[in-house]
Design a protein that fits this description.
homodimer; about 350 residues; alpha/beta; 434 Repressor (Amino-terminal Domain); Rossmann fold; 3 domains; 6-stranded parallel beta sheet; 6-stranded mixed beta sheet; 12 helices; DNA-binding
DNA sequence: ATAGTTTATTTAAACGTTTAAACAAAATTT
DNA sequence: AAATTTTGTTTAAACGTTTAAATAAACTAT
């Protein structure tokens, strides 16, 4: 019922008949050579017996560290965000840190508020999926010397720490794959935003098409981030109307792929015989679709791990390094449906 | 570059030429009647000018509160977990709390470690999706007087705070719906676990079937929590083999539904003409399937909101109340695919 | 014997708040 | 004019740690 009073250093000190400082030294392994073995052993034993847990608030207050890291996502409810969050969680927990998570909903005010709250709670570092046009805000974080790393989205012209997917490579290799499958006229459905990673995906697509001697006139549809059902529907219709010979469509995110698949089902497109679909990001639901959907898989595990690793390094020795890792994912082409892990 | 020193009470005090205590009183609105209006105004103005942010660690250390709440989920990467997390996030952030999130992966050790870490970081409260057989652990939390509330899963025989879906009602009304659609022989695919909520779902199914004069012999398949692809496949095959006349299948989670749909696609089941599928929980991917999938939708928004509301109340005045809210969701029957929000 | 080292431990300040209690000055009551 | 109350503010301890500096005791070395 009543909150059991927590064991603190002074309790151990009393029982061991030593000073608080000595207990602290022992438990933090501070001056191992200076401290008598037996005393150390005794203190450790008592600490264990009493099930001592350091108070992170006191510790944090004193050391100016909180052993917490903040993760700012686009939207936790979005499977992509959730997946990356989970990966980061695993990496962070291992280092005995706790993870604060917040969604900014592509909204600058929410983003600012999250940064503010997290910094205020003295997070030791931030992992950030940035909203559009957040350059000023990220710079401020940088200036304040708060260890941080951007993931997924970044600003190429600025020296921010970043680890993320090679977006140019990704769409480029999708096109390559489709061409390899004999496709001759490929459409691309992506978003209409200022995000650099979307620009890159488009650039990858267009560049590859040109390389393979295909034109991209009327083949790139950029839809708004909102109201996807309607917008993707319209985009698909336009794409198909303007390109009667189109024999493949590449999507720029898994959600766009989802809506594309919905369209295909609804309109009974002959996939993949007449027209092949290619998705972006892994998604469980691809194989509800009657035919296998090949896709490009971002190396999320790697991104999460590297981001956390870097952040930990940066926390340990601030300012010592910067990072810009553009990692490549891989193409997942249809396996027999039966054989899925 | 260098960390900008944070503004603290003493900075304000100095500039306002008053004591630290007075600043604290003013900023916390402590003795409003006791403090001279002008002084208060001056202090507030300076605080705003200096952009003062209280240090949560110091505050927490002194007041024994952290303004953080911990959320323990099954697995953040699972869309169901992610959705509920997002809802809770929104409700928590509004109250100026921060949210710590962890996944326990149905694993007792991880669960214990999470509770431990969170409690250690002095969370003011816990929202818990419990693993199997965690009664002892929850009791310990209760005994320690840590405000908490279970969601999704619970232990009916014990007086734990809980808010969650009415699982008996949910499957019961699914059967009702299917019978209303003229279905005469219904199968049920669920999990083989000790979780009470799964027992309830099964009980709801069985009870309803009997009410409607259907037997349930060989119609309930309970698959393990792991290796779903194989296990659901096998369960589906068995179900259909043993019940040649079966004209509907109800699933017990959205993930089971997903695998069911995969099976249907792979085996070209005639859905819904010959056999109707009914899902559990909302999932975007249902409408990739060629025919609309009706489903029972848990009232997640309500669950999240009520859980947080209760927790806040409990944090404000501990021990004053308990809660056990079993809330009902609703059936979502097929709308024309074109018209989706 | 005395000074200098080494070894083992303690003292005390600090981190940034909150808050009970003390205090001083002004206003009010006797 | 003395005593009391009210008003406005300050003092100082406390929360649970960490850590530089001080200290004390036990050994060298001279």
């Amino acid at each position: 019922m009543s909150k059991t009073r927590k064991v603190k250093l002074s309790d151990i000190a009393k029982e061991a008949e030593v000073s608080i400082a000595l207990v602290s030294y022992v438990l933090n392994n501070r001056h191992p050579d200076r401290i008598k073995k037996e005393t150390a052993a005794r203190i450790k034993k008592i600490a264990k017996k009493l099930n001592y847990r350091p108070n992170p608030l006191a510790k944090g207050l004193r050391t100016q560290k909180s052993n917490a890291i903040g993760l700012i996502l686009a939207d936790l409810a979005n499977p992509f965000s959730a997946q990356i969050a989970r990966i980061i969680e695993d990496n962070v927990i291992g280092s005995d840190y706790i993870l604060l998570i917040g969604s900014m909903d592509e909204n600058m005010d929410k983003f600012r508020k999250l940064v503010d709250t997290f910094v205020n709670h003295s997070v030791d570092g931030l992992i950030i999926v940035s909203p559009e046009n957040a350059i000023k805000e990220i710079k401020a974080i940088q200036k304040q010397g708060i260890p941080h790393v951007l993931i997924d989205r970044y600003f190429p012209e600025l020296p921010f720490n970043f680890v993320g997917n090679d977006n140019f490579f990704s769409t480029r290799s999708c096109v390559e794959q489709l061409v390899g499958n004999g496709r001759k006229s490929i459409g691309f459905i992506t978003h209409d935003t200022d995000y650099f990673h979307f620009h890159e995906r488009k650039r990858g697509f267009v560049t590859a098409c040109h390389e393979f001697g295909m034109n991209t006139e009327n083949k790139v549809m950029e839809v708004a981030l909102s109201d996807l059902n309607t917008n993707v529907d319209r985009a698909m219709a336009t794409l198909l109307a303007k390109n009667p010979d189109m024999d493949a469509i590449l999507f720029s995110t898994s959600v766009l792929t989802l809506y594309g698949l919905k369209y295909a089902v609804r309109n009974q497109l002959n996939v993949p015989e007449r027209i092949e679909f290619m998705g972006f990001d892994k998604a469980e639901y691809y194989d509800i679709f009657p035919s296998p959907i090949p896709y490009y898989e971002q190396p999320l595990e790697e991104i999460g791990k590297r981001a956390v690793d870097f952040l930990m390094l940066e926390i340990a020795k601030p300012g010592a390094q910067t990072v810009r890792e553009i990692v490549k994912g891989s193409l997942k082409v249809a396996k027999p449906l039966i054989e899925k892990s």
